[in-house]
Amino acid sequence: MNRREALSATAAAVVAGEPLARLLAVESSRGFYANDQVQIGLIGVGGRCRHLVRSFPALPNVRITAVCDVWDAALDVGRKLADPQALATRHHEELLARKDVDAVLICTPDHWHVPLTIAACEAGKDVYVEKPLTHKPEEGPAVIAAQNKYRRKVQVGTQHRSMTHLIEARRLLREGIIGTVHKVQCTWNRNAPRAQRYKDTLDPRTVDWKRFLGNAPDQPFDPYKFRQWRWFWDFGGGLFTDLMVHWIDTVDWFLDVGEPAEAVSIGDYFSAQGVWETPDTVQTLLRYPHKQLQVHFEGTFSSNRLGSMCEFRGTEGTLYVDRGRYEIIPDRGKNRPEPRQVILGAGPKGLDFYDKPDGELLHLTQWIECIRDRSKSPACPAEAGVRAAAAAHKANRALPMFPKKAR
Question: Structural domains in the chain?
Answer without folding.
Answer: 3-160 (3.40.50.720), 161-357+382-406 (3.30.360.10)
